[in-house]
Backbone:
């Protein structure tokens, strides 16, 4: 969106490098009097972020909270980001699959943290940002990440933000595409280059050919037990029944 298409006061604010507290008040009063309620509102906010690269703390909070509320609370289903919402977000904050803005990466993570359910396409997309940072040193995550060939403690904190909803009964229940990205990250460096906790985490991963949201439900857990049961041999089943 070009600056000429902004209405007042966004058209004036778009010419600045940094959005001040006073300008945020103007946006709240005139541009978003009812908050971000439509896709056009959301696109306007994203365009302002692109026009004003210097992010003040106040602008970061306003930007992240406004778009998160729109995607999670104002767009059905309320309380969770939909697959359509996830596709819209990924399309609008990335270039060739890479989120280059630190602010927009934080938006992605915050949306995932407050959403009751997260499509595995979105969590896989978030994991892929870590892969880009490690393999090619590109993207917004690479900006804050220490210069490490393998997975470091900073990465483990990032992974926790992305995958904490996937922890079920001591296992990380992931979809096949989420698991594939973790394997690609694992192959990006020798084992000795990875933090020891990375190997411990990888041991917890269970990936089966079923959407991650299903795997994390009670029905999904029963499905996993049945699937694992069919994959065992008769002697193994007898051993399981006796223990």
Residues:
């Amino acid at each position: 969106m070009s600056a000429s298409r902004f209405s007042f006061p966004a058209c004036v604010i778009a010419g600045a490098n940094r959005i001040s507290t006073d300008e945020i008040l103007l946006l709240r009063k005139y541009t978003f009097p009812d908050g971000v309620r439509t896709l056009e509102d959301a696109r306007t906010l994203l365009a302002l972020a692109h026009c004003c690269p210097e992010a003040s703390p106040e602008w970061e909070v306003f930007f992240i909270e406004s778009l998160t509320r729109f995607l999670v609370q104002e767009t059905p289903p309320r309380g969770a980001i939909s697959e359509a919402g996830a596709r819209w977000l990924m399309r609008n904050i990335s270039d060739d699959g890479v989120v280059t803005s630190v602010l927009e990466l934080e938006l992605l993570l915050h949306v995932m943290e407050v959403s009751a359910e997260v499509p595995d396409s979105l969590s896989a997309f978030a994991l892929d940002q870590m892969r880009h940072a490690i393999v090619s040193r590109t993207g917004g995550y690479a900006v804050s990440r220490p210069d490490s060939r393998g997975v470091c403690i900073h990465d483990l904190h990032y992974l926790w933000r992305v995958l904490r909803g996937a922890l079920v009964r001591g296992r990380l229940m992931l979809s096949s595409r989420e698991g594939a990205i973790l394997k690609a990250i694992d192959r990006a460096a020798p084992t000795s280059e990875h933090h020891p906790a990375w190997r411990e985490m990888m041991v917890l991963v269970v990936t089966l050919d079923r959407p991650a949201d299903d795997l994390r439900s009670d029905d999904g857990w029963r499905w996993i037990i049945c699937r694992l049961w069919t994959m065992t041999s008769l002697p193994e089943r007898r051993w399981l029944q006796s223990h």
Q: What stands out?
A: The first helix runs from residue 10 to 13.
